[in-house]
Amino acid sequence: MRRMIAAQSYRLIHEKGFWGGLAVTILYALAVLAFSAYAMINNGRSIALDQLYFYGYGLDSFIPVAGLVLAAVISFFVGTEYSSQTLRNALIIGRTRTEIYLSHYAVSLIVALIYQGVYALIVVLVGWPVFGGFHLSGALIGLGTLIGVLALAAYCALFNAVGLLSSSRTVSSIGCLCGVMLTMFLCFFLNTKLQEPEWIEALEMRDGSSQVYTLANPSYLNPSQRRFVQGVIDSLPSGQSLQLSGLNCGHWAVLPPISLIGIVLVQGIGLLLFQRKEIR
Questions:
Q1: What residue intervals traverse the membrane (predicted)?
Q2: What is the pTM assigned to this prediction?
């Protein structure tokens, strides 16, 4: 399988999509630094390097930038395997479907790590003199990085499965991008529900005078609903990425096991379906 990974890596570095994704990552890192510096200088905002570092996984608790970039690059790269008959030729020369599936996943993960490594390198090297060092402890930075890498690994598992199970590059690319967008909006909506206050104030006019009173918020989720909603957010790579960018540190410890379970499930189901797929 090492030869397959090497061959696919060689083909990848000659793909315009790979370099396009890298260029987007670099521009995104520079834009984050530029806008943050502008906000700090002109608006007097205090910005920590920690936040900029974790913006590599999602922008301001809303846009999972890494997921969108990987969705485009991985689905496009894997999707060309059918049109170029690379998969068929690999089977003819004796490669197993398991080798093909896992080698594609390995290359996808390498791409994700390269992009994230480049982003982190730019932000830390350029941002440290401007914004100062990290405010979070080394343990939290390490835990957050682990969560981010596992979220990227989960993205790669999903995009690799879609790309190899769909014979159409266009369908797989659109499906991956739409999937990330839908989960992004879903996580944003669910997070707003979690932020609802338990009590709200209402204004009532009586005899020409106003009176403020407190009443229960009908939109406030009960404990069982809150656990369910939080579980949905935690189970999605987009949800984990957005929690990282929002620096919601108190909830980070439960995320790595969830990601590992998700990766194993997606890999297992994807590999099982790929074993049965007809390749022409």
A1: 21-41, 61-79, 100-128, 134-158, 170-191, 252-274
A2: 0.88
Cα separation of 77 and 7, whole Å?
A: 13
Task: Name the E strands within 171-272.
Answer: 199-206, 209-216
Sorted by where each begins, the domain ranges of the chain are 2-188+222-276
Rounded to the nearest 10°, the torsion over CA 127, 74, 92, 263 is 90
User: Could you count the other beta carbons within 10 Å of the beta carbon of residue 78?
Assistant: 28
- What residues have CB less than 8 Å from 148, skipping those under 6 apart? 54, 56, 57, 116, 240, 241, 244
Percentage helix, strand, coil, to 5, in the chain? 75, 5, 20
| DSSP 8-state code for residue 197 | -
Q: Which residue from 6, 51, 10, 5 is spatially nearest to 32, judged by alpha carbons? A: 51
End-to-end CA gap in the chain: 22
SS3 12: helix
- Each of the 280 residues of the chain gets a pLDDT tens digit; together they read 777 788 778 888 888 889 999 999 999 999 999 988 888 888 777 788 888 999 888 887 678 888 999 998 988 888 777 666 777 777 777 778 888 889 889 999 999 999 999 999 999 999 998 888 888 888 889 999 999 999 999 999 999 999 888 877 788 889 999 999 999 899 889 988 888 888 877 776 666 666 777 878 888 888 899 999 999 999 999 888 888 887 777 778 889 999 999 999 999 999 999 888 777 6
- How many Å is the Cα radius of gyration of the chain? 22
| Contact by Cβ (8 Å): 107, 153 | no
The answer to whether residues 49 and 132 touch, using CB atoms and an 8 Å cutoff, is yes
Residue with token string 């997070």: 191
**Around Cβ 138, how many Cβ atoms within 10 Å?**
8
